[in-house]
Specification:
Elements lengths: L1 H16 L7 E6 L7 E6 L5 E8 L4 H12 L12 H8 L3 H13 L5 E2 L6 E7 H8 L4 E5 L5 E4 L2 E5 L6 E5 L13 E3 L22 H8 L13 E5 L7 H11 L10 E5 L13 H11 L7 E6 L8 H12 L7 E4 L3 E2 L5 H16 L3 E5 L19 E2 L7 E7 L5 E2 L6 E7 L5 H11 L11 E4 L2 E4 L3 E5 L2 E6 L1 H21 L9 H4 L7 E2 L28 E2 L1 H7 L3
Parallel strand pairs: 11-13, 11-14, 12-13, 14-16, 16-18, 18-22
Antiparallel strand pairs: 1-8, 2-6, 3-5, 3-9, 4-5, 6-7, 10-24, 15-17, 18-19, 20-21, 23-24, 25-26
Helix pairs in contact: 1-4, 2-10, 7-8, 8-12, 9-10
Length: 564
Amino acid sequence: MVALRAALIASLVALACASPATRNLVLHESRDGVPDGYVKSGSASPDANLKLRIALVQGDMAGLEKALYDVSTPSSSLYGQHLSKQEVEEYVKPKQESVDAVNQWLSSEGISASTISPAGDWLQFSIPVSKANELFDADFSVFTHSESGKQAVRTLSYSIPQELVGHLDLVHPTITFPNPYSHLPVVSSPAPKNVTVDAAVPSSCARTVTPTCLQDLYGIPTTPATESSNRLAVSGFIEQYANQADLRTFLRSYRTDISSSTTFTLETIDGGSNPQSGYDAGVEANLDIQYTVGLATGVPTSFISVGEDFQDGDLEGFLDIINYLLDMDQPQQVLTTSYGQNENTVSRSLANNLCNAYMQLGARGTSILFASGDGGVSGSQSSSCRNFVPTFPSGCPYMTSVGATTGINPETAADFSSGGFSNYWGVPSYQSSAVSSYLSSIGSTNSGRFNSSGRGFPDVSAQGENVAIVVDGSREGVAGTSCSSPIFASIVSLLNDELIAAGMSPLGFLNPFLYSTGASAFNDVTSGDNPGCSTNGFSATSGWDPVTGLGTPNYAKLRTAVGL
């Protein structure tokens, strides 16, 4: 080991002394061309400052994956025995030779980096564009998104020293482009529908969905939670702010059985904030808070506002919020996020690193939920395409993706509900049977337009159309899977409260449970589809499908399934 480390240091010293032209750089990541919707506007200013992040190759992620499944699979003897902060970090931390190699290289280039993750697998530093081009044999340029006008400094390829292969996993932001559109719900005007409404559900729910509708439809209890240790977190990005006055109005309108002063706590990272003027009230943030505080009765809820101090797009914030939670001794047991983007805009290496971060938090006992997207098979938003576009992070196997339904009796798939199959991750074992059954049922339909060996999503679904919220004092209806994720998160939080009260563990990573003992606890949604790419997309059917997943929740059956 000593000899190996000495040889490594010697090679890095030689590397530092070499001129840029003679350094042994090898191509590390590249993309075929400029992403759809972007055009290259010109070279970036050499003096412009770039905030770069480096991911080191992580330690024993296969071991952590096994540990995750052991504590998350109901048939396992270790089910519910979630890992500690230290146990997770022991799996994730890079090998010492990787830390030494990368730090020696940075030092030789006069770069001082800071560690930004609990396990030491992410570093951050700032350098001019000219230095970045030299260091990585890159061509950082300004790219403009034609429709939105948003600009980003990116390169289509970059290289790293041969000596760092196997030690340095990726550099960001490089070939990953930001999402030009915020994944936000669509403000809609609720319209009457010709549907039959079950006697147990108010007829008004066919037009406007409220907390009472959801309680009646899914059997969600109204009695307050009792366990202060059981906590729910709502993530906030892109200057979306949750307004307390609007929450009070919402509760006075739709939860008259609880105090209108019920509120949430604020946590901030990366310079986040939460201004309270009506003008600043965000549709997404208000939706997420109103359908967690207003549905997960009595569960302590946090709004985590992620600022833009270190961001060039949303994905830095995606990582930072997970690292923020991983750094806690006791992170919240549920995290819901209603943001995302198309999988093909994210480099495979970055996607894997973010997915691994969800693995870490899941092993700690946190249920991670994301809205699946609102473009059907076209991706996170409707767009032109030939092949179906999976969304990120819904394709990651270590989180739970939530699609959308509409109507009351019966519920049908919302036509915007994104779903499909990942191009980055294969089918995880927990859903292999469900995916196989669905693929057999559709035969050759849409053959060649999607990856039939990919991880399927969404996993579950909930109401996502004509959902009532309050924004800047006014009542509005919104639609999107952005509605569905906080609704499902609230149900998980209420189940966790009962589990903790009974001396049991919270649910943690949900999917192995959902696809096994929990599968029969869902209302099967068997009609509707998610069109896109000039097709009808996928169709909902009996059992799991890539439109509504396993279906919508039945609280009473879920209680039984979790052992209550």
